[in-house]
Amino acid sequence: ILSYKSLLNDPPLDIKIGNLKIEKNGELNYTISYDITNTSNIDAKEVSQVYVKDVLSMVIRPEKELKAFSKDLIPAHSTKTISVKLDNRAFAYYNTNLKDWHVENGAFEILIGASSKEIKLKQRLDIMYGTNVASREQFVQLTKSTWLIFWYELY
Length: 155
Hints:
Elements: E1 2-4, E2 15-26, E3 29-38, E4 44-54, E5 65-74, E6 78-86, E7 93-95, E8 100-102, E9 106-113, E10 119-127, H1 136-154
Antiparallel strand pairs: 1-4, 2-3, 3-6, 4-5, 4-9, 7-8, 9-10
């Protein structure tokens, strides 16, 4: 976790994060909570970042997207539970054909860390939004089947 402290003659910080929990609060509203523990002898301000990764998107999306962050004072030798809220926009991308934000059904990952390269916690989240939309897994299976039929007929 990104930490702010005096750099002169201070012992190193020992910061740990864990206990990731995802609570569903509505169709596409979630509360993400996790613990930050400061086992060092000094208080520390910690910045933790929450990323969302679309595991199998039908469109090109970034590997992971920063959706929330929290800066918190963690007293020495203590643990603090951090909570952030994610709504439908955290899982959506802008669909130029629909001219609106769109959420695909399927698997997402919630990633917690100090930066995009320093992920400490990860948990899968399956989203089924709406009733008449095929999931990405069904789309991929259909696409594979179509390719197999095409390949077979070609040869």
